[in-house]
Amino acid sequence: MAIAKAERLMNLALCLLGTRRPLSKRELRESIEAYLEAGTDESFNRMFERDKDDLRELGLVIETVENLEGETGYLARRDSNRLPAITLDAEEAAALGLAAKVWQQARLAGAASGALQKLRAAGMPEAEDSYEAHHSALEPRIPVHEAAFEPLMLACRDRRPVVFDYRKANAARPEPRQVEPWTLECWRGHWYLAGWDRDRGAERVFRLSRITGKVRSRAGVFGAPVPDVVTVRETVEGWAGETATRSALIKLRSGCGYPLRSKALSSRELGDGWDELEIPYGHGLDAWLVEFGPDVVVLEPADLRADVVDRLRAVAKG
């Protein structure tokens, strides 16, 4: 069925692009075999209207013209459906090449590679990969291992509410969540979903690695307004600990925790293979510190130390 529809759409597009005058529904029906096989005029009209809408959604500009006899005709002028000449310099081509590599492990890999091939066929210069010699040290990719990524990406795009089970870091069992998804953001190598939690009546951020089971779509529309991208990004930053309101003191094993060291406000050697660091303390820091396991010990404040201990106990319980 999918192949038959694709063939029908291509035939309709070729007819509309190949004509110099508007073609009526009758003429299009006589020219396309699939339309001739339509049992009734009503079924043909429904099929034709769906196909016309699908082609327009794919980007084909279809004009509707009425002739002197009052009959409606359709055509797709080539000049209206031709992209302008693409001119990119070497730096722009390199940027596009890197952008395509970012999505090699995600659903967008095929689309990114296909777009790059089309641009090169249209004359985009082959950019010298200045990162090739350093590929072992620099990988311009965003890894996507979570099964929840694809359904959530589609739900964000289509503005569809979702339901999933979510396990908080300090909880032994997952809980069901009803969410209106806004966008997906990647921070510190982890993917997060920002959206509106219907049960709690507030915006929330969810780490994809803590979503268990399947993400299920729900019918209906969003009940809460969707903020702009900048506001959502700030929400994720704050939740992931990027927005600090105070500082924390930690012990860090020597030679470990370079991401923490890059954030340090001050540091000093303690001896015996340990260093003392003062780092910014914001929401989500406890979850980040847990990832370093036995290489990190929280000295102060006491509430941060307690949160880290609770998370570690929850991990130990499984």
Low-confidence stretches: 129-140
Rg from Cα: 28 Å
Backbone structural class = alpha+beta
In helices, the fraction of residues equals: 25-40%
**Strand arrangement across the biggest beta sheet:** 7-6-5-4-8
**What's the mean pLDDT score?**
80
Total number of strands = 12
Give the amount of beta strand, in percent.
15-25%
- Pattern of helices and strands: HEHHHEEHHHEEEEEHEHEEHEH
Report how far the terminal alpha carbons are from each other: 46 Å
Largest sheet, in brief, is: 5 strands, antiparallel
Provide an overview of this structure:
The longest helix is centred in the N-terminal third of the chain and has 17 residues, at 2-18. The chain has helices at 2-18, 25-31, 33-36, 41-57, 90-102, 109-121, 149-158, 229-239, 258-263, 285-290, 302-317, and strands spanning 23-24, 63-66, 72-75, 162-166, 175-187, 190-197, 202-207, 211-217, 244-253, 266-271, 274-282, 296-300. The chain is elongated, with a radius of gyration of 28 Å. It starts with a helix and ends with a helix. The strands form 3 sheets. A 5-stranded antiparallel β-sheet has the order 7-6-5-4-8. Helices cover 38% and strands 25% of the residues. Helix 5 runs antiparallel to helix 6. It has 318 residues and is an alpha+beta fold.
Keyphrases for this structure?
single chain, 318 residues, alpha+beta, four-stranded antiparallel sheet, 11 helices
Question: How does the SSE layout of this entry go?
Answer:
Layout: H1 2-18, E1 23-24, H2 25-31, H3 33-36, H4 41-57, E2 63-66, E3 72-75, H5 90-102, H6 109-121, H7 149-158, E4 162-166, E5 175-187, E6 190-197, E7 202-207, E8 211-217, H8 229-239, E9 244-253, H9 258-263, E10 266-271, E11 274-282, H10 285-290, E12 296-300, H11 302-317
Antiparallel strand pairs: 1-3, 2-3, 4-5, 4-8, 5-6, 6-7, 9-11, 9-12, 10-11
Helix pairs in contact: 1-4, 5-6
